[in-house]
Amino acid sequence: MAKAKRARLTARQLERIARALADPRRHRILEQIGKCGGSVACTAVRECQPVTAATLSHHMKELETAGLIRIAREGKFATLELDREVLDAYRDHLGKI
Question: Which pairing describes strands 69-74 and 39-41: parallel, antiparallel, or unpaired?
Protein backbone atom coordinates (compact mmCIF):
# COMPACT_ATOMS: atom_id res chain seq x y z
CA MET A 1 0.00 0.00 0.00
CA ALA A 2 1.41 3.39 -1.02
CA LYS A 3 1.93 6.00 1.64
CA ALA A 4 -0.24 9.11 1.27
CA LYS A 5 1.49 12.25 0.02
CA ARG A 6 2.29 14.66 2.84
CA ALA A 7 3.00 18.36 2.68
CA ARG A 8 6.42 19.46 3.88
CA LEU A 9 6.03 22.11 6.52
CA THR A 10 8.62 24.73 7.35
CA ALA A 11 9.36 25.74 10.92
CA ARG A 12 7.38 28.95 10.30
CA GLN A 13 4.36 26.98 9.05
CA LEU A 14 4.49 24.70 12.08
CA GLU A 15 4.52 27.77 14.33
CA ARG A 16 1.56 29.33 12.50
CA ILE A 17 -0.46 26.12 12.71
CA ALA A 18 0.27 25.73 16.42
CA ARG A 19 -0.75 29.34 17.07
CA ALA A 20 -3.93 28.99 15.00
CA LEU A 21 -5.00 25.80 16.77
CA ALA A 22 -4.21 27.19 20.22
CA ASP A 23 -7.38 29.28 20.01
CA PRO A 24 -10.39 27.13 21.05
CA ARG A 25 -12.74 28.95 18.67
CA ARG A 26 -10.47 28.32 15.66
CA HIS A 27 -10.14 24.70 16.69
CA ARG A 28 -13.95 24.37 16.72
CA ILE A 29 -14.24 26.14 13.37
CA LEU A 30 -11.66 23.78 11.85
CA GLU A 31 -13.57 20.78 13.22
CA GLN A 32 -16.80 22.11 11.74
CA ILE A 33 -15.21 22.56 8.31
CA GLY A 34 -13.58 19.13 8.48
CA LYS A 35 -16.81 17.35 9.37
CA CYS A 36 -18.41 18.62 6.16
CA GLY A 37 -16.14 16.36 4.13
CA GLY A 38 -15.72 18.96 1.40
CA SER A 39 -16.32 22.62 1.03
CA VAL A 40 -18.70 24.59 3.23
CA ALA A 41 -20.17 28.04 2.80
CA CYS A 42 -18.83 30.63 5.21
CA THR A 43 -22.43 31.51 6.09
CA ALA A 44 -23.00 27.94 7.31
CA VAL A 45 -19.99 28.24 9.63
CA ARG A 46 -21.23 31.64 10.80
CA GLU A 47 -24.62 30.18 11.79
CA CYS A 48 -22.90 27.79 14.21
CA GLN A 49 -20.45 30.25 15.74
CA PRO A 50 -21.67 32.88 18.23
CA VAL A 51 -19.35 35.63 16.99
CA THR A 52 -19.64 38.70 14.80
CA ALA A 53 -18.88 38.45 11.10
CA ALA A 54 -15.72 40.50 11.65
CA THR A 55 -14.47 38.13 14.36
CA LEU A 56 -15.23 35.09 12.20
CA SER A 57 -13.36 36.72 9.32
CA HIS A 58 -10.33 37.19 11.58
CA HIS A 59 -10.38 33.52 12.62
CA MET A 60 -10.75 32.39 9.01
CA LYS A 61 -7.77 34.52 7.99
CA GLU A 62 -5.64 32.97 10.76
CA LEU A 63 -6.60 29.44 9.64
CA GLU A 64 -5.90 30.35 6.02
CA THR A 65 -2.53 31.94 6.87
CA ALA A 66 -1.59 28.77 8.75
CA GLY A 67 -2.45 26.78 5.62
CA LEU A 68 -5.15 24.75 7.35
CA ILE A 69 -7.99 25.93 5.12
CA ARG A 70 -8.45 27.22 1.61
CA ILE A 71 -10.91 30.02 0.98
CA ALA A 72 -12.55 30.40 -2.42
CA ARG A 73 -14.07 33.85 -2.75
CA GLU A 74 -16.79 34.73 -5.22
CA GLY A 75 -18.00 38.27 -4.82
CA LYS A 76 -19.00 38.74 -1.20
CA PHE A 77 -19.41 34.99 -0.63
CA ALA A 78 -16.73 32.56 0.52
CA THR A 79 -16.44 28.79 0.53
CA LEU A 80 -14.10 27.10 2.99
CA GLU A 81 -12.27 23.80 2.65
CA LEU A 82 -9.97 21.98 5.04
CA ASP A 83 -6.49 21.27 3.63
CA ARG A 84 -6.16 17.71 4.89
CA GLU A 85 -2.65 17.34 3.49
CA VAL A 86 -1.37 20.15 5.69
CA LEU A 87 -3.30 18.91 8.73
CA ASP A 88 -1.93 15.38 8.22
CA ALA A 89 1.62 16.72 7.89
CA TYR A 90 1.20 18.65 11.14
CA ARG A 91 -0.18 15.57 12.88
CA ASP A 92 2.80 13.55 11.60
CA HIS A 93 5.16 16.21 12.98
CA LEU A 94 3.50 16.01 16.39
CA GLY A 95 3.78 12.22 16.33
CA LYS A 96 7.56 12.53 16.08
CA ILE A 97 7.93 14.64 19.20
Answer: unpaired
